[in-house]
Amino acid sequence: MTPCSTNTIYHKMSYIYLSIAVLAEVAGTSFLKATEGFTRPGPTAFVLVAYGLAFWMLSLSLKTMAVAIVYALWCGAGIVLIAVIGWFVLKQPLDVPALIGIGLILAGVVVINLFSSSVRH
After folding, report:
1. Which of 1, 34, 101, 106 sees the fewest Cβ atoms within 10 Å?
2. How many CB atoms neighbour CB 47 within 10 A?
3. How far is the C-alpha of 24 from the C-alpha of 9, rounded, in Å?
4. For 81-92, how does the pLDDT look when each residue is reduced to its tens digit (9 = 90+)?
């Protein structure tokens, strides 16, 4: 295996780690209300484990990706997914300005992934 292909594998793994971080953070955030201010042990334990996993995976993705890019992708994807869960699962509808803002966040994530050379750090 050449050094370049090894770097490519590590970079692809960083995206897997980042994806797991996003999903874990979204799962934790989705259950946050169920903790009732961290007074319910089961949901509280789930949230703490989910956030712990999210930060661990986030730290692994930082081994090959720039922190600004990782954080932008993590936050952007998390915001969009939480908004979708809030709307469809929790029945918390979004108005037009909220949808436009979320669309702009999503557009930013797409632009970073498709056009930024910082992603391929």
Report:
1. 1
2. 21
3. 22
4. 999 999 999 899
Residue pair 111/103 in contact by the 8 Å Cβ criterion: no
| Domain boundaries along the sequence of the chain | 3-120
Q: CB-based contacts of 108: which residues, under 8 Å, 6+ apart?
A: 72, 76
**What amino acid occupies position 85?**
I
Q: At what angle do helices 41-61 and 67-88 cross, to 10 degrees?
A: 150
> Residue ranges of the alpha helices (H) in the chain?
3-31, 41-61, 67-88, 96-115
pLDDT averaged per 10 residues in sequence order, the chain, 121 residues = 60 91 96 95 98 97 89 90 92 94 90 76 51
Nearby residues of 116 by Cβ (< 8 Å), 6 or more positions away:
69
